[in-house]
Amino acid sequence: MFKSKTVFVLGAGASCEVALPVGAELARIIQKRVNIEWELGQFVPNGADIDLFKSIATKFGAELNEYMRAGQVIREGILLANSIDDFLDRHNKNERVVQIGKLAIVGSILAGERASHIFTSNHKPRDARFILNNEKSWYVRFLRLLGTGVNKDRLSTLFENVAFVDFNYDRCLQHFLVEALQPLYDISEQEARAVVATLKVLHPYGSLGDLTGNNSVPYGATYDRIDVFEVAERIRLYTEQINEHDQTIPEIKRTIGEAQRIVFLGFGFHRQNMDIVRPPTASARSIVGTAFGLSEEDRAVIQQSMGPLLGSVGMTMDARTGRSRTYLDHIHLPDLTSAQLFERFGQTLMS
User: Fold this and answer.
1) Mean pLDDT for the chain?
2) Does 36 map to a domain?
3) Cα–Cα distance between 159 and 89 in angstroms, integer?
4) Are 300 and 172 part of one and the same domain?
5) Residues 6+ apart with CB under 8 A from 154
6) Are residues 97 and 62 in the same domain?
7) Looking at the domain assignment, is residue 223 inside a domain?
8) Are residues 153 and 69 in the same domain?
9) Is there a domain that residue 179 lies in?
10) Alpha-carbon torsion (338, 343, 347, 348), positive or negative
11) Model confidence pLDDT, tens digit, residues 18-43
């Protein structure tokens, strides 16, 4: 169990360790998914998502050409943007581009969940390969630390010092925990779901939905199991995620502000997302984050921007160097993957 109140902030790189597509790979998948044409009274797929366009034809038959045109806009421009989210935000006044983009995101994420290393379902139950396929991921390393010192009688307290701010649409974290807690503690799926339900997970841009319950979307669900249009409405762009009725962003800021330690995993540190997690007042004593593949210069810029996430850390003497420590000494952004971060900073995270 983590002794300090710890908030994990997840970016796209956190999901890639279980084989979900992210970044440019996801953009190419979406580009292909919307690459459809109409000839001689039928769809010419070109690798596109035929079922999605059939659903659009059924729901918006008279506007099918306009939606196909919207798909063409995405196909031709998406690889020039930072991400699908960034591209849709640039076209936020074009309702059809935004809608078909969100529909393509839903289809792509669900397909990614089905192809992920952690996928299980009624037809593909968990087996011995579940742990073997994921042993090197941060998910397993996180659970090893989290469960240290927590026996079965205290399982209800497992997440009491942990919260997540998840910028991804997928449900990899919750699905993994439900599956992994069962063999770890020899409990039923129902018991595991009850424990995972106590974990605070906040999604600033929405998600595909809960895994169980009313209007749920099973992990890796196919179109015949869901209303894809309703699910797409749960996804929000940056310009959509702040409104007077949405308490998600204030709750994120409050949660970050109360944290004693903040951990960034697979996060891109984009300015608009940093604005979301920056609280009015902060309590954190330390920040640890992955900066895999980033230059030393970029890591320094990011580190400088993180001052407002720290509380008053005070001036102390560094025993090794004999110099006074500044707030920068409390921010660690190594060039590591998420799994490597848990290997390198395991004792730090548990302190």
Assistant:
1) 92
2) yes
3) 34
4) yes
5) none
6) yes
7) no
8) no
9) yes
10) negative
11) 999 988 899 999 999 999 887 767 78
Reading the block at residue 56, the tokens are 């659009």
Domain count, the chain: 2
DSSP 284: B
How many helices and strands, by DSSP H and E, does the chain display? 15, 8
Segments forming the whole domain that contains residue 274: 6-19+123-206+241-350
Residue that terminates a domain, selected from 86, 115, 144: 115
* Per-residue model confidence as pLDDT tens digits over 228-275: 999 999 999 877 755 545 789 999 999 999 999 999 999 999 999 999
Continuous H helices in 116-171: 129-134, 138-146
Count CA atoms within 13 Å of residue 5 on its CB side: 12
For tokens 């009624």, name the residue: 122
Query: Does a structural domain hold residue 255?
Result: yes
Same domain, 48 and 171: no
Cβ neighbours, 10 Å, residue 125: 10
Query: Could you tell me the two tokens for 225?
Result: 């199991």
Residue with tokens 């007077």: 244
Q: Is the pLDDT of residue 142 over 60?
A: yes
What is residue 17's DSSP assignment?
G
Q: Provide CB contacts within 8 A for 251, sequence distance 6+.
A: 202
CATH number at residue 248: 3.40.50
Residue pointed to by tokens 């710890």: 6
